[in-house]
Design goal:
about 160 residues, two-stranded antiparallel ribbon, 3 helices, 2 strands, mainly alpha, about 5% strand
């Protein structure tokens, strides 16, 4: 019996403190490090997932802008009012979005249509600015000058029948 008590005494005096020191000095820091690595890995995975999601959203809105521009051109020749053309363009774009299973709310679609229209109006204004044509050099078949003063042509942005 004395040997069992002596062994327990040795265990309590020497082995238990050594185990406690090893656990405190090595095992706990190692567990903390592993826990931190896991948290970083989870954070990186979430960040990559969010980045992928943002890329998809950007691609969807790029498609929306392209389809809105095409819709504005397509409805440009319709015999409807401006509001009717806008609604027709919205319907065309919404149909494209539905066909491709892209969920974008109606307010964003309407904004994209308005933006596409505004960009195209600027292009038309830049392409068809007021031009002055001087015809002083032009003469008729008998040699008389056709025009004594320059002629100014003004082209307004708006509907063009074609």
């Amino acid at each position: 019996m004395k040997t069992t008590i002596e062994l327990m005494n040795v265990f309590a005096t020497f082995i238990l403190p050594v185990v406690a020191i090893v656990v405190t000095a090595f095992v706990l820091p190692w567990l903390r490090h592993k826990s931190a690595e896991t948290k970083v890995a989870i954070s990186v995975a979430k960040t990559q997932e969010e980045a992928t999601h943002l890329q998809k959203v950007k691609a969807n809105y790029d498609l929306l802008a392209t389809w809105a521009s095409a819709a504005v051109v397509a409805v440009g020749k319709l015999d409807q009012s401006g509001a009717g053309k806008k609604q027709a363009a919205i319907s065309l774009v919404q149909q494209q979005l539905d066909d491709h299973s892209i969920a974008i709310n109606a307010a964003n679609v309407a904004t994209a249509i308005e933006t596409a229209y505004a960009k195209q109006v600027d292009v038309i204004d830049n392409a068809y600015q007021t031009q002055t044509i001087s015809q002083a050099d032009k003469t008729s078949a008998d040699g008389d000058a056709l025009v004594a003063a320059p002629v100014t042509l003004t082209i307004e942005a708006g509907e063009v029948d074609g």
